[in-house]
Design a protein that fits this description.
Helix content is about 35%, strand content about 10%. The chain has five helices and five strands. The strands form two sheets. The chain has a three-stranded antiparallel sheet, with helices on one face. Strands 1-2 form a two-stranded antiparallel ribbon. Helix 4 crosses helix 5. The longest helix has about 45 residues.
Length: about 200
Amino acid sequence: MRNGSGFTLLELIIVLFILGIVAGAVAYSGGRSGERAAVITTLEEMGEIKKAIRGEGGYGFYPDLGLIPEDPTSHEYATRYLCLKDDGAGSNEHTEMHDFLVATLGSAEADKLIKWDKYNRKGWRGPYIEPDKKYDAGGNKYFPLLSDAWGNYYRIKMDSSQDKDSARIVSFGANGKDNGGSEDDILMWIFGTNPVRLPDGFTL
């Protein structure tokens, strides 16, 4: 039986079914497109973090301090060392950086490197990159951080050997979970010859 518009009920069901398939395909395509854009944005940001550590024209965390900004106990907060601003002795960010240098190099070396020595061209002169987030470290202290396209903090990790060629920037990708360098994880090595590690099934 046809309704007033001239379509049978069966024809309407078929049309609606086809529209549903098309809408699903468009949504899936849009989702994949959004996921691809997020991965590319994250890779671009990781490239900027890499530059901030390696240095551009001699200005960088590693050339200045001879260190990788790693926090073995709190990988998710390691990028704060790139973002900390030298706003004077006694400030929270200055103290945080000094504590990092003391823990890594000892008090004597930390006292030398906490300020820029223009003659020896060594010492801290942060920030090396602008942050996009802050986290609450407690005690009314808020420190700057960097996050990926999914809003998760970037990690900076090294192998137990502390070989600088093992240093890598890590994003946990879309699922936000540590998959041990597989599945959604994105890795970019700072030094050495290791390639970038892309999410499973992703190609540039």
